[in-house]
Amino acid sequence: MYKNTMKSKITSSLFVLPYLVLFITFLFIPILYGAWMSFHEWDLLNPEHTFVGLENYMKIFDSSSYINNIFFEGLFNTFQFVIYSVPLLIIVGLGLALLITNLPRKLSGLFRTVYFIPYSVSVSVVAIIWLWLLDTNSGLINQYLMKLNLPIIPWLTDLPWAWISIVVATLWWTIGFNMVIFINALNEVSEDLYEASSLDGANRWQRFIHITLPSIKPTMVFVVITSTIASFNVYGQPYLMTRGGPGTETKVLLMNIVDEAFNQRQLGNAAAMSLMMALIMIVISVVQLKISDRKE
Question: Residue 51: what are its φ and ψ, rounded to 5°?
Answer without folding.
Answer: -75, 125
